[in-house]
Structures
1.
Amino acid sequence: MTLRVVVVLALCACAVRGDRYHGEDVGAKGAAANARQRPAPLEAERTKQFWYDEAQAAIEKRARRSSGQGKAKNIVMFLGDGMSVPTLAAARTLLGQRQGRTGEESELSFESFPSIGLSKTYCVNQQIADSACSATAYLCGAKTNNGVLGLTAAVPRYNCEASLDTSTHLDSIAAWAIADGRDAGVVTTTRITHASPAGLYAKAANRNWERDEQVTSENVDIGQCRDIAHQLVHHYPGNELKVILGGGRREFYPNTTVDGEGRRGRRTDGRNLVEEWISQKRSRNASYSYQWNKSALKDALANPPDYVLGLFQDTHLPYHMEADQTTKPTLAEMTELAIKTLQRNEKGFFLFVESGRIDHAHHDNYAELALDETIQMSEAVKVATDLLSEEDSLIVVTADHAHVMSFNGYTERGGDILGRSSGSADDSVPYMTISYTNGPGARPRPEGERIDVTADNNYGASRWRSHAEVPRSSETHGGDDVGVFARGPHHDMFSGVYEQSQLPHLMAYAGCFGPGKHACSAGPAIHAPILLLVVLTICQILRL
Ligand SMILES: *[C@@H]1O[C@H](CO)[C@@H](O)[C@H](O)[C@H]1NC(C)=O
Ligand SMILES: *[C@@H]1O[C@H](CO)[C@@H](O)[C@H](O)[C@H]1NC(C)=O
Ligand SMILES: *[C@@H]1O[C@H](CO)[C@@H](O)[C@H](O)[C@H]1NC(C)=O
Ligand SMILES: [Zn+2]
């Protein structure tokens, strides 16, 4: 083996630890290299209070200008994992082109929402977010460290012991909603134990502790730090979620069990968490449905049970373009069952829906798959806007972080969004309208020259990688702001540029639940007359 091959293999080995898409070089080594002149974040950022105060001050300010009325009984938050602003522009173009038009003038379902803002996605210890620290921000209302879920930045990643201190624990907006008597649910196309959905119900010093063996293999006491799948079934608020739909069956079954699709479980503690979930619901005398295929999901639509657990794949759901449409539900179909199940609570609900594989496709430089997963998200949002009234239901669509896909060149109007740029490069070698700053699509340059990627054997296939500048086994996230689209009560509170950790506070404000200020109990519109009355009364007393 040449030295070069050894180095490449060593790099791959590092990146594979934990998660194929998110190598653990994130945060650690890079930070050390930069440490010399790097100012540290404020100590206060390690506390929950810092981010709560930051959000409440912003809400106070914005509420004074807001003309919003009413109360969001229902709230649906849609999250496109890695759905950067260029991803939106390219996806809408692809959508239009698939319909036979030029494409650029097309619109994703949520792009017509009345309010749009930008959220700042950095985390406490990292300029560019991973999906765990960002999920903690947009679901629990406080920024934290990269790789950490549901805990403040006082907990270093991997540190189980630090996470036992309850002052570091954060409650998610699902817990706030349930405490208010509403129902809550979660839907994703990734493993249900993956970072974004786990932000709703888990507290974990490491996002990769999805099943028992991933905790114990790091010599962590599993009696103290439970794996994420276990938390979903047995800890609050996971054990109160009415709807749980996604992938990741293997994290729930023992490695001695083979599931309905012939896939083996991965747990080594012998526990069958699906059976435990079932017996728990049975002991509550509730109706329930555990399902693993599309026909069971469709059957449940007619008469949704009290609780539904759907795990449609051993790991992540397949990409929509590659899925067997007869057995795998779409994000839109899962969203429909979720809303129809949760809608029965008269007090309302909170639902989190993630199109999680936009991120994975970008990490592999698979532009078409990333755009198609974005279009799937647009379809799912359409289901929600059709089922829920603008009068009483708030819908928020956003992303956790960006990616480094660029939409570039001087392609003519209507040019194939997945094709080569019609502009010319200085070296006269073709380049794509969509390419990446880094990732596995980086091509070797044997003679120092770029190669013509349009001559690749699989050029045009959905798993053809667009070209990238910097070679990396997995393309990285981007640090740019991401869009926030809002429709429904108090949508105008979501305009502006703000910290991502404000999002759950803003949603709870609109819904009148949770720890902060509520739209329906406060605000100038109500306070002014009361104040006037007090002043008038005092004047009268003084005259007497
Ligand atoms: C299941 O896990 C146990 C404990 O780690 C291990 O000894 C056993 O070989 C595994 N079985 C299979 C079929 O992988
Ligand atoms: C469930 O139903 C059984 C029999 O009807 C009853 O004895 C039990 O108390 C019920 N449990 C709960 C939690 O309601
Ligand atoms: C779908 O799952 C149900 C059990 O929930 C099973 O009875 C049925 O055979 C499955 N259908 C297919 C097509 O695998
Ligand atoms: Zn990612």
2.
Amino acid sequence: MKTSIRNHLISQSLLLLLSYTTCTPKAIEILLPGQSLNGDQRITSPGGIFELGFFTPGNSQNHYIGIWYKNLPNQTVVWVANRDQPVSDPISSTFLLHKNGNLTLNSPSTVAIWSTNSTSQVRNSTIAMLLDDGNFVIRDASAVLWQSFDHPTNTWLPGARLGYNKLTKQILSITPWRNPQYPAPGPFSFELEQTSLRLLWNSSETYWTSGNWTGKTFSHLQDIEEKHVPSIFSFVVNETGSYLSYAVRASAYPDPFIRNHTFIRYMIETTGQMKFFVMENGSLQWNLLWMDPMERCDVYASCGAFSICNPRNLPRCGCLKGFEPKFHKDWELEDHSNGCGRKTSFHCSGEGNSAFLVMKNVTYPKSPDSLVVDNIDKCRLTCLRNCSCTAFAYDNQCLIWGGNLFNVKQLSSDGMIGKVWYLRVAASEKEIIDSTAGNTKRKTTWIVIGVLAGIFTLFSIVLVVVRRRQSVRALKSFEHSLVLFNYRDLKKATENFSEKLGEGAFGSVFKGILPNSTPIAVKQLKSLLQGEKQFQAEVRTLGAIQHINLLRLRGFCADSTRRLLVYDYMPNGSLQSVLVQNHPLILDWNARYHIAIGIARGLAYLHEDCRDCIIHCDIKPENILLDEEYNPKVGDFGLAKLIGRHHSRVLTSMRGTVGYLAPEWFTGEAITPKADVFSYGKLLFEVISGRRNSEGLDDGLENYTPNQVANAVTKGQDVLTLVDYRLGGNADKDELIRACKVACWCIQDVEKDRPTMRQVVQILEGALDVGIPPIPQFLQYLSGSLTEAINYREPTSSSEIIFLS
Ligand SMILES: *[C@@H]1O[C@H](CO)[C@@H](O)[C@H](O)[C@H]1NC(C)=O
Ligand SMILES: *[C@@H]1O[C@H](CO)[C@@H](O)[C@H](O)[C@H]1NC(C)=O
Ligand SMILES: *[C@@H]1O[C@H](CO)[C@@H](O)[C@H](O)[C@H]1NC(C)=O
Ligand SMILES: *[C@@H]1O[C@H](CO)[C@@H](O)[C@H](O)[C@H]1NC(C)=O
Ligand SMILES: *[C@@H]1O[C@H](CO)[C@@H](O)[C@H](O)[C@H]1NC(C)=O
Ligand SMILES: *[C@@H]1O[C@H](CO)[C@@H](O)[C@H](O)[C@H]1NC(C)=O
Ligand SMILES: *[C@@H]1O[C@H](CO)[C@@H](O)[C@H](O)[C@H]1NC(C)=O
Ligand SMILES: *[C@@H]1O[C@H](CO)[C@@H](O)[C@H](O)[C@H]1NC(C)=O
Ligand SMILES: *[C@@H]1O[C@H](CO)[C@@H](O)[C@H](O)[C@H]1NC(C)=O
Ligand SMILES: *[C@@H]1O[C@H](CO)[C@@H](O)[C@H](O)[C@H]1NC(C)=O
Ligand SMILES: *[C@@H]1O[C@H](CO)[C@@H](O)[C@H](O)[C@H]1NC(C)=O
């Protein structure tokens, strides 16, 4: 009677296929003069890859003409015509090719709200069609009159241009959507500036640049010491003198990695971050391979005016005290382009109408004007007397900000004290804030704070300068991507291995800082089973594996007696450290779900997309690391192989792992990627409940989370009560039910019944549905047999359990 998840998934995909073949409206390939498109009619590219028609983004009520990949279950829109002029009714609107070559979008029926303005010399000779590279072209017998590739929106596809045309003075840049429901251009842009690419805010402030790329060849595995883009560009300086860059078609690109991917796209996110996605042949899943800036708060004006960006918080954006989002609806959709506005406005004529709030532990806003005045009091008066002044600071000179304040970033509270500055608000607003904060300090204290802060900053500047002076030695680059470190440098970087971050099965991890101030994590491997050559070969394979949810290997060190691996340093530690009950930060449900999907994506990549399938074998919260943005990164992958050929022996002697091991580790059956799926399921229970599964086991099976969840899911009971009590029941119910079901499917006894990691990703994303999982048998054994229970219990930190092979 047990319905296997596989059957269920097969019937799902059959349904999908059926719905494609029966419900798809008749596709048009070419639009002829006088012909139009409306309602659910579509233009399809000859190879059936792309499709053009009306679409509705997210929960919006509005309709837009767009281009998307035809056969992906999740619509990925790559181009939009009427970005900021939606139509409300696609039935009465027409997308019409005129006989003179002009193509217009008319709503309702007559008024043109968007047009290409293309004209043909020969009347009634134009056609419009969608090509297989996603380019929508209007051409007549002799030339291309207009093409969507010359009017990019938020996506850059292989074959499309980016650049500056000296003749038309036109900049071809890409701009993000305002929010997931509104494709109008946001405040950011990605464009070519002569020989480098850059990201800009308001077409004026550069917040990221690629550097000079002339004459370079680009690969996604570029030297990691340099900031780079995993790239498929080649630069062409047009004979007419304009700089144009062409994204080379995948097939023409020499890198075999790129050739293996069906779809490639660059996209600028509404957050102002640039992302590079690839999709492997046959998979229906986008993999995020690269993103810059990594941290959202590093984007210029990332949260809009009068906001504060906190890299250790989700959501990132908040308003300064005394301010609130200008448009709450947009703000909730993570559209911060309008920023925050004053809760209470004030007339600036009288000096008593406004007052200052002290801002601490945050950075200065961007672009102050500086004046020379004697003291902080005069600086304050200067600000008070200037109607456009919104903030001031005194730092040996008087800094005055006028108009909107941008780029205020929260500093971490651990030791780093930011500069103090003063925010101008209505006097009545300050009273409210002070009274709610119980702040009754006298007016004079801020002077003291200001002076102290000044002294402190001076001191820190001296420190930084001294540090910079220290020798910066070039590191040997190895195989384009990995750095070969020598032991002396690593010893120095880690201050003689003094700051231990953790201890794992393969060795201890220490924090270090490279001469260029990049923090690193250095893993000292315990075992030397492999020779230097073989070790290097394996490390090279690992170094080539890059995914946003996998911990990046920066380099290594190997000599006769030592083996060390150098990784990116992850400021937020491991998932385990964040899940413990006394951690000051409580991850909300969104963050947890984001982490669960991220880990699944990373594992799916390891299992299916690498050259050799890699089974992680040791998935547990300690091996999931969190970057500044709380993106999960799977660590320690591939190490079992590095240590030696008999890695199963090493693995089964690992500590702290037993609670996550699949039954096949005990029965001696072959280990497949499904063993990781099992461990992932166990981990997912802990992410949901916020406690170790083993904690509940001490009080009997009733408190064992997997058992509780399995029971609740099977009986259709409310699972909200099983979520971490610290969330106070705040969780998205659909997501929670999906997570619970997936976790139960993952821990099925028979590996064939478990989903693949790829399917897990799809289920969590809501792209696939699954049925009710049966209760795994081992849970039933658990209730009966104490010996089995011990196998699933966490061993204490010092004991090592060795299983017989
Ligand atoms: C699928 O669509 C949903 C909702 O729009 C989105 O949240 C999710 O990220 C998408 N998945 C992929 C793989 O793009
Ligand atoms: C076409 O011309 C109209 C009016 O001259 C202009 O508003 C519109 O932006 C143009 N469309 C394009 C796609 O350039
Ligand atoms: C194209 O059509 C639009 C809307 O009718 C019009 O404003 C524009 O002038 C036309 N462009 C040309 C070149 O005919
Ligand atoms: C215009 O071209 C279309 C298709 O090519 C044709 O069916 C139609 O008769 C032509 N109209 C005129 C007035 O030439
Ligand atoms: C955006 O840039 C324009 C000029 O490039 C400038 O006039 C305008 O003030 C800028 N907007 C903001 C909010 O800074
Ligand atoms: C970029 O580098 C090339 C070759 O290294 C050099 O000739 C060129 O002047 C540089 N361009 C800029 C804008 O720095
Ligand atoms: C160079 O620019 C001219 C004018 O914009 C254009 O017609 C031509 O196709 C361009 N050549 C290349 C190789 O892009
Ligand atoms: C490309 O795919 C083929 C077939 O799946 C595989 O054998 C080859 O190793 C892949 N190449 C790379 C660089 O991933
Ligand atoms: C993947 O797809 C691309 C483009 O369709 C094709 O050129 C390539 O040969 C395919 N690779 C494999 C390994 O199937
Ligand atoms: C007021 O402050 C703004 C912003 O610093 C500055 O540009 C302007 O010149 C000041 N006005 C006067 C009258 O000082
Ligand atoms: C600022 O950071 C210090 C620690 O450096 C902390 O004691 C203080 O409470 C923080 N202040 C605010 C307002 O967060």
